[in-house]
Amino acid sequence: MVLLSATTIVAPLAAYAQAKPQNDRAVTLLMDFALSTIPRQFRQPNGEVVTIDRTKKGEIVVPLEKAKEIVAVADRSARAQYCSLPEEQNANFQSMMQREIASERWTKQQLVFITLLHATTVAYLTGTVRVMFEGDGEIGMEVITKGPAWTEPCTDRLREDIKSRVLAYINEVPAIPAAKDDPAAPRAEPVSGTLTK
Predict the structure, then answer these.
(1) What does pTM read for this prediction?
(2) How many CA atoms lie within 13 A of 114 on its CB side?
(3) What is the four-CA torsion angle of 103, 23, 124, 95, rounded to 10 degrees?
């Protein structure tokens, strides 16, 4: 059994914060893990249940370039979580989801995947999940408390920087007014329960 810890993926992601393009291998690992843990059914905020057919990977995943964007958004969400900024974390996530829904590019299954890829990335960066590969590449998950990817303290300056980055994202074109007006919109969740990040 090979253990892939959060630090295996965090290092390339941390580098992305300073230099683009994002590490394709790290994002691909996150995508594979998100796909392997996607539930068979997912309840939308409106109560609708989306059934996921995991045998049809092409109908679930999004292209790598879009996945990189999602991981970049999740990096902001994780940093907001690290610095105890729940409103900014939620507004960041909701703005992303509203953009993706408004684009009308994705199936319901792909929107579930986008949600899960974001949550998976946040879990890695905050150090609460690690992945175990067994046998024929089968993936398992272990929830741990390892600690975040960052070691710097959350100073007022860092919090303000995170707030300004989230606000800039929310205000990007196309503007999504609901992301600013209603940051507490309900999240989609697995039918069996809310995804733990």
Answers:
(1) 0.73
(2) 26
(3) -20
Rounded Cα distance between 33 and 48, Å, is 25
- What are 169-172's contacts with CB under 8 Å, separation 24+? 169/73, 169/76, 169/92, 169/95, 170/91, 170/92, 170/95
Burial of residue 76 (CB within 10 Å: 0-12, 13-18, 19+) is buried
Residue with tokens 């249940």: 49
Q: Between the ranges 42-56, 60-74, 176-190, where is the mean pLDDT highest?
A: 60-74
Cis geometry, peptide bond prior to residue 153 (ω within 30 degrees of 0):
no
Residues 6+ apart with CB under 8 A from 102: 174, 176
pLDDT tens sequence across 62-84: 999 999 999 999 999 999 999 99
pLDDT digits (tens, 9 = 90+) for 13-33: 444 443 344 688 889 988 988
d(CA 23, CA 26): 6
Residue reference for tokens 């986008």: 114
- Give the strands of the sheet with 129-134, arranged side by side: 2-4, 129-134, 138-143
